[in-house]
């Protein structure tokens, strides 16, 4: 999604970046930060007005304001293109995909919306209490859900590249694709055994659009 930086009319005082905070931009920027910077630049570059009324020229002031608004609109549009992921490198797009996976499937987000799995029967542990979990110090980046989502994003990007280029002779990337598919399959098998059909498992499978072939004997992309 490319932010919209077009002014509503020639007399507008602000050029808004019409996108929500959930939209990912390049260079680690958020839409609200970009919008605030553009509005601040408008104020700093706004033409100064004559303090004495007798020396004011309304026609000249109107022309200067129109030129300023048009130049500011062009600058805002250029900034929107610079920070758009549509014009970013593949490395920046991969970083954005990883960030999106963490924010979508990280347990620091899903713990408040998904039901936890059923607790372990204390009789199995012989009456011993469960060990306390170490508190999470930041965003969840290492859980199986996040790793599966990141691998899925990388697999789809690489598979699309091989399909477009006709990668029958690209043995290195074909091998990398197989390695990632098998690695994802291991994570899926582990998570399925651990969660046993819980909401966390269903949310992951339905959101990513995965099939049974990705965690059973058949390998699919």
> Which architecture name of the largest domain does CATH use?
Orthogonal Bundle
Secondary-structure element order, as H and E?
A: HHHHHHH
Secondary structure: number of strands:
0
Identify low-pLDDT runs: 1-20
What would you call the structural class? mainly alpha
Name the average pLDDT. 81
User: What is the terminal separation in angstroms?
Assistant: 25 Å
Structure overview:
The chain is an all-alpha fold and 221 residues long. The chain has two domains: 1-47 and 58-87, no CATH class; 90-111 and 141-214, S15/NS1, RNA-binding (Helix Hairpins, Orthogonal Bundle), CATH 1.10.287.10. It is built from seven helices and no strands. The protein has helices at residues 31-45, 58-83, 90-105, 107-110, 144-165, 171-195, 199-208. The longest helix has 26 residues, at 58-83. The two termini are 25 Å apart. The model is unreliable at 1-20 (pLDDT under 50).
């Amino acid at each position: 999604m490319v932010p919209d930086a077009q002014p509503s009319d020639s007399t507008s005082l602000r050029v808004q970046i019409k996108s929500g905070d959930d939209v990912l931009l390049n260079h680690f920027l958020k839409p609200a930060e970009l919008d605030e910077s553009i509005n601040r630049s408008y104020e700093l570059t706004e033409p100064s007005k004559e303090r004495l009324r007798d020396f004011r020229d309304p026609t000249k002031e109107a022309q200067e304001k129109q030129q300023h608004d048009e130049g500011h609109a062009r600058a805002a549009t250029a900034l929107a293109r610079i920070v758009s992921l549509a014009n970013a490198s593949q490395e920046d797009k991969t970083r954005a995909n990883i960030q999106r996976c963490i924010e979508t499937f990280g347990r620091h987000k899903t713990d408040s919306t998904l039901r936890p799995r059923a607790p372990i029967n204390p009789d199995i542990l012989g009456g011993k209490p469960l060990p306390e979990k170490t508190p999470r110090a930041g965003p969840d980046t290492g859980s199986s859900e996040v790793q599966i989502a990141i691998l899925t994003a990388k697999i789809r990007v690489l598979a699309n590249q091989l399909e477009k280029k006709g990668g029958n002779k690209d043995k290195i990337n074909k091998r990398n694709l197989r390695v990632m598919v098998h690695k994802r399959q291991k994570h899926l098998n582990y998570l399925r055994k651990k969660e046993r059909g819980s909401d966390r498992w269903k949310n992951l499978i339905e959101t990513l659009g995965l099939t049974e072939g990705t965690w059973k004997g058949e390998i699919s992309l």
